[in-house]
Each structure stands twice: as structure tokens, then as C-alpha cells.
Fold:
Amino acid sequence: MQLQQVPIGNRLLASLSADDLARLQPHLEPVSLALRQVLIEPNMPIEHAYFPEQGMSSVTNNSSGGKIEVGVIGQEGMIGLPIVLGIDQTPYEHFMQIPGHGWRIAAHDLEQAMAQSRSLHRHLLRYVQASHVQASETAFANANSDIEARLARWLLMCHDRVDGDDIPLTHEFIAMMLGVRRPGVTVALHVLEGMRVIRAKRGLITVLDREKLEELADEAYGLSETEYSRLMKTEA
Amino acid sequence: MQLQQVPIGNRLLASLSADDLARLQPHLEPVSLALRQVLIEPNMPIEHAYFPEQGMSSVTNNSSGGKIEVGVIGQEGMIGLPIVLGIDQTPYEHFMQIPGHGWRIAAHDLEQAMAQSRSLHRHLLRYVQASHVQASETAFANANSDIEARLARWLLMCHDRVDGDDIPLTHEFIAMMLGVRRPGVTVALHVLEGMRVIRAKRGLITVLDREKLEELADEAYGLSETEYSRLMKTEA
DNA sequence: GCTGCATTGTACGATTTCGTACAATTACCC
DNA sequence: GGGTAATTGTACGAAATCGTACAATGCAGC
Structure:
């Protein structure tokens, strides 16, 4: 057990064994992650994997004009899973939805590290499963839940990935991610605000009552998160 | 290059190198896959991985009373991906929706084989990505497409996994998988039938015009399948 | 403090899908 | 070959969501 010089704020990195983390550390480069910065271009070679410490990235399908979100990634995970699977690209765009900062590593260095340490590879593969479950739960939510519940779910996922209770996003943007009309989001937010579950200012939503949000999201929220902690806890 | 005694009808197995296939073969056991047979119980240790040669399995979220489908698996893939990721269970049920047959291998034997052959492991990991994309595309379809397009997409996915053009399923069942009302499916099927795209009998849908089906599914169908062939073609 | 633009609020009819109910049909079992 | 259950067809008002348009508001920059 070795004291880190810089504390690691990314939970996926932090859950690695000391050995594996040490193996990555020389290659980790601190990066700031600007709003709307594209981390992975769809169908282009992936240059780096990113481990956010703050901020949130969206995984989107960009066909059909707009973007539709199929996943979110923050300090619990990593951007660039295909690398872990030995693949060099993905059809989905990854960009920063809430700015922040984190670490990045060249795809090649990560590959090499995984080739040297089976336990590192195994650990990252566990996160692949968590990510897969998240996508599946998004499919589930999109089929079953009304706008209000989906919005609640989405706010919770943001809340899990920001520092305080403030989520800096516009209705327009949220609508795009959920694949619904913008006024639909406005109205649903009003309902939540009426229940004192959130407070909304221009371009900013503040979570006031997380528990009630979870009730409102109903079955759409939770499985993913439970699965994540199960997977990441077991193996040290 | 060695002639197989029994030709392998599962595309994932078939795309393995001769070496890797030979490594698995002693452990592969032919199984028939009965209608509604549960291959993986949610949150229970996974005993076997299955490689279907015929038939189709559904991956479902079983909360909320009914089941909702988050993925399908047939002769292009395998059931039991968590094993490939070094995980022993999944929150989703896997059961046969269209009966058939295939091969199975004990989880332990598969693990051992992957430990011995990195190329085997790598190859199966490529399929993990394909499966992830499929889940993401389901999320996309559920958010964006109306019942008709989603039904078209779903019929296409079935069609890809059965032998001829016949898909033996009831409206009730399809409705459950898509997460919509049963009469909604009945009506949508009538529309497709009116366009001569399918023919429907009791418990049986016959695909007549696959191309037009693909048009109707619009953007909801295709990406997954393109990604699959890209991933599985590259590496021999 | 004004101005201009991005954001949010609100309205409206149109459309899709829902929930539910019940009738009609087919397949299967005895 | 008649009865029975599963499946499919159809209808209806209710609800959710859509597409669109436009007004009101707050913020940023000058």
C-alpha cells in the first residue's frame, strides 16, 4: 500500500490494485475537459482513453440529425472502452456535457499495460459489464418510462457525476439527450420544481431532494448503479 | 486448415481460428434449445455459455412485472458474455424465444480456454462490443421510433436469426418484448401486411419483402449489424 | 443601463399510444 | 367433430407526447 502523491478522484482508477495503478501512472496525463470537447469521434481511431475526475461525458448516436444519448460517463468510469476490448473505434461520439478534468492515457500505453497485467485487464473488463448494463437500462427506460421518470433518472445520473448538487444544463440540451421535445422538458421540470425536488435557474438545475427523485424515476434508476458497485467492490 | 467433422453453424464459433476452435471443441456439447427454456437466470451463477446454431434467445429485464427485451442473440453470437468479462452473473434473464439448437460449454472450461489462448479471448471480446452496440441501438430505437419502425427492426433481427422467412411468435409476445400494448402490435402488423411486407398467420409471421422492412425500420436497423460484420470480419 | 440573443414559458391542435373491454377466430384436445 | 383455450381483431375515450409557433424573461457584452 503506497501513498499516492496526487489523490486519484476517478473511482475506476482508484479501485485498481496499487500495482496496477502504479503501472498506469507514468502514462497518465492530467487533462482539463472542456464543455462540448469531443473525446472520441465516431468511427475514427481512438487515440486516448480518459478517466474523468469531474464532469460528465455523453455517449451519443448522431444519426437522424440530432444526437441521442445512449450512455453517460463520469468519475465512476472511463471513456474509450473499445480499447479494453481490443478494438480501435466505436460508432458513437463521446463528448463532454458537463466540463471538468481528469486523466488520459494513450491507447497504445493502455494496451501495453493490459498486456502486462492480466489483473488490470480483468478489472477494466468488469467495468465493461457495468457499462453494458447502463446501456440496457437506457433501452429499458426509453421503452417504459414517461418523460418525467426519464428526466428524473437522467438528473440522478448527472447528480452522481458532479460535485455538489448543481447540474449546469439547458432544457434544449436535455431534450436532445432524452430524445424528446424541448417544451416537454420544460414542463416536466416545472412539475419536479413544484414538488420541491429540484430548483431551476437559467442553465442550471439544482437537486434538492435526491430521494424523491429516485422515487420518481421508479424502476428506471438503480439497477445500473447497483450492478456497478457489485462489480467494482468484489475484486480489489 | 482442418476439416470439421460436424460443420459449425454458429457464426461466432465459425469465425474463430482453427486452433481456438479446436481448443473449445472437446468441451462443446450439443444441446437442443427448447421454447422458453431459460439459459441464464438473473443474478445467479452462470453455469454454461451457449452458442446457438438455430433459434433466438432474448435478453430481458424482468422488473416491472413483465419482461422487456434489451437484446437478442442467435447464431451470430453467444449467451453468457459475462464469462468472457470474468464475471459470473448478470441481472438479465436469457431465454429461448424461438426454439432451436446449438452448443454449450461449461463456464469453467471456457474460462480455462480463454486463459490459455489470448486470441480466443480477444475474439470473444470483439463480440462483446457488438453486443454493446446492439443494446445501445435498442435504447436509440426505443427513444426515437414509433411502434411500426420498432416492430420492423425487431422482425429484421428475428429474420437474421432464423432459417427461412418464418418467425413463429404471437402478438402478445412481441408486444411484451417491445414494451407496448398487444393491440398496438396487431395493428402495426396489419399495416405491414397491407404493404405486402409480411404475411401473418396465427403465431407465425412470414417475411416477404426484407428490403422494404429495412426501409420501414429506418435508422433503427443496421448500425448494429454493420458493426458486427466489421468486428467479426477483421480478425480471423 | 441598453441591446440583443439565448433561454425559458406557454399555448394549441394533431398524432400516437395507452388502457381496457369484448367479440371473432383459429388451433388443439378429448 | 364439438368444446375449450389461446390468439387475434376491433373499438373507444383518455392520456401522453408531438410539432410548431410565439411571447416573456434573464444574461452578457457594449
Notes: DSSP finds ten helices and eight strands in chain A. Chain A has a mean pLDDT of 94.
